Amino acid sequence: MSEPDQLSRRERQIMNVLHAEGSASVATVQEKLPDPPTDMAVRRLMHILEEKGHVKRLGKDGREVIYAPAQSKARAGLNALRQVLDTFFGGAMDEALAAHLTRKDATLTDEQVERMQRLIDEARKEGR
User: Fold this and answer.
1) pTM of the prediction?
2) Are 55 and 49 spatial neighbours (Cβ–Cβ below 8 Å)?
């Protein structure tokens, strides 16, 4: 599978639709896209995404092929986060978190702080 950062803007838009819908036909994807291209263009992009390993065919609904993301939204999100960490922060989670927390508009609830502390404590216990 190619990296998410190697997707075109339109390919990313299609993947966003598929993740939001879970699965969809070309017609459904086309109607959900901003400034939608022709149905033939969407079909071609779906085929390209399938070749890249981002999309899989689930089957047919009548004459329409139904497509779904090849990996879950959570897995895709983790892969994208890993790419951002590597690209902008040299893989350092603490630097990314510090960059986020030093923004003027950054806010954390007490619950979020407690959860992060639990996750850090668990990671330490497990030697990660």
Assistant:
1) 0.68
2) yes
61-113 residue pLDDT tens: 999 999 999 998 888 888 888 888 999 999 998 899 888 888 888 888 899 98
Q: Where are the domains positioned within the chain?
A: 4-69, 92-128
* CB distance 30 to 42 below 8 Å: yes
- Amino acid symbol at 99: A
DSSP codes, 86-109: HHHHTT-HHHHHHHHHTSTT----
Looking at domain 4-69, its CATH architecture is Orthogonal Bundle (1.10)
Q: Give the CA count within 13 Å in the CB-facing half-sphere of 54.
A: 27
Cα–Cα distances in angstroms (integers) from residue 37 to residues 31, 32, 42, 54, in the given order:
9, 11, 7, 20
Rounded to whole angstroms, the maximal C-alpha distance in the chain is: 54
Secondary element (H or E) of residue 50: helix 39-52
